[in-house]
Fold:
Amino acid sequence: MPDQVYEIPIGPIHPALKEPIRFTFKVEGERIRGVDIRPGFAHRGIEYMGMKRNLIQVLYLSERICGICSISHPITLTLAVERAAGIEVPPRAQYLRVIFAELERVHSHLLWAGVAAHELGFDTLLHLTWKVREKVLDLLEELSGNRIDYAIPIYGGVRRDITPEQVPQVEAMIRYYRGLLDELLDAFLRDPSVEARTRGVGVLAPEEADSLCAVGPTARASGLAKDVRQDRPYLVYGDLGVKAITPREWGLEPRGDVYDKAVVRLLEVGQSLDLIERCLVEMPEGEITSFPKIPALLAYLKKADGEGLGWHEAPRGEVIHYIRLEAGVEEPVVWKVKAPTYSNLMSWVPMFVDQEIADIPIIAASIDPCMCCMDRVHMVDASSEAMVQKEELLRLSRAKTERICRGGGPA
Amino acid sequence: MSALHLLWQGAAVVVGGGILGLVYKGFDRKLAARMQSRIGPPLRQPFLDVGKLLVKESVVPKDAVGWLFRAMPFLAVVASFTVLLYLPWGPFPAILSGHGDAILVLYLLAVPALAMALGGFASGSPLATVGAQREIVMLMSYEFPLAVAVVGVVWRLATLGGGPAFSLAAIAAVPLWTQVGPLGVIGLAILAACLLIVTPAELSKIPFDIPEAETEIAGGLMVEYSGTYLALFYLADAAKTIAMAALVVTLFAPYGIAGLLGLSGAGAQAVDLAFHLVKIFAVMFTAVTTVRVAMARLKVDQVARGFWLQITAVAVAGLVLLVLDRMVMG
Structure:
């Protein structure tokens, strides 16, 4: 029965998926012939909620776009607002933001490594990585008070300093992971059963990665030296001289498969440790925010008029926030979030084709998808499976913009 | 032996085997957890699981072939517990000794897998269908090396005049290792290794848990089973684990220690039975528990290729060595 193509639905709820999304695979035996992806199940209308709140409240909201990227979104939002309102950030605060961003990268990549191991049925590796991940979460709790949702960035700076007493703890964490990194690389990259399951699986060719605008580790694993910290430096990343990590750093020619994606993410843990260490050394003394008083900040932001774009290399890739402020209005007039998963979504299609059913979980996990970051729209008219084409979407969004301009809410 | 006596012994083996299977499952889970630096469930967890499943509702899907779906768990349980009746228990001969041989045991071991595959096909779920297809491919992959290993050993024994050909009782009575030449010892060692590799495949444990693959097909052929039916499959798995490990022990390490300790009578039998259980545990721990914490799940094509080419080639090499040994030793 080689010509029998049948459909296998995966999701919206499935053990292979950590967040809701629906794949419909066309399958021939164990071979995947095609895939249809339907996102939107985690859409919560956060941008709209943000446009009904003042900017301080929006900051808290941005932190809750995603639990894992809970420093990436606020950093990007503050960068956008600071550009729109023309706020200077003290150097020390810039270093502190970088330290927290890199701590987040360490815990996010370790989280991914555990999830990937679990998708491969290698639970021992899952438990090992998640056990060592506790160390960075403990440190984040020590520095910010929370394991996730740190509430660190604020417009014009950061809310908490790293005290001299806390510095040795950060250094201890760096030493801990430096000692473990070789062991982790060994457990993942030199294990024959992991290699058998990840080599040549979910390949994303460099041309495809380029034309589909893949970002972050997904693009770097295909050999594209693409990293926002390197290409469009912000905060103090320009001074730190970040270089995009591709599998070449591990002495391998990039093939763009799942193995390469693991290589990139694990090496980036080491890179983040280096960056944190350098930040601790180079961080100048001084103010941590240019607006110590929140009411003064709010009053200043209410007067601000303009638009700003913020960008940041989140653990999953480039995240962009766009904000438009109008004088006399507390709320942002427009707030738009583009999460890395949105850019990586389409790279799933070439990655899935001609793979086996057994590869679905690891390929789905390989771009480290984050649905709650990405979902911006959900079709609630479930009566038909109608697809909305580009022209229709454009017409709908223009109508919405006109409504907003006339002062009405986006219905 | 009277029919009543036989019945009583059979009941003892079935109940004992079931309890033992669950106890070993408990050890397996606890030890695996410790190796993964988890605390793990209490040792009696498998008993709690079975107890809870038995009081749960047993849902039969609307699209399922009802009678087939309901019958398969019973078939799996009956087949796997019947294997226990054909295996010698340390100092005690098999209950049904003389009524069947090693070949029958091989067939009986394949029945639970077939029952699970049929149950999967009958449950009318695409995930279960994929799981069932995988189970059949798995069955076709590991059956040949398994048969080569078992038949090789019993054939060599028959040539030594150790009793009726293919009889497991004869194997248990006459350990082969000391009776074959150096070539034979190497051949036996190879076959033992092959059988240890086949064991986790036979039991669908990582890296061979492909038909169930939780993260891929959400439990595969078990996905629609619940309540009593799932409990029956669970029990069948427990019994099959014991049976498979006991088969390895019977074929390759049927030694007792009572002689060494200078015991005799009932004491000797008790010690040897205990030692037999320890050996079964050792086989399960080596071939199932440690392997499943040390590896990732393989893909079905990788497993099929590995078993058909590499493992079969190695097993046949072991068999050839045994044949050569027979020619040399006479």
Summary: Residues 91-119 of chain A form the longest helix (29 residues). Chain A has two domains: 46-335, 379-411. DSSP finds 18 helices and eight strands in chain A. The CA atoms of residues 81 and 308 of chain A lie 6 Å apart.
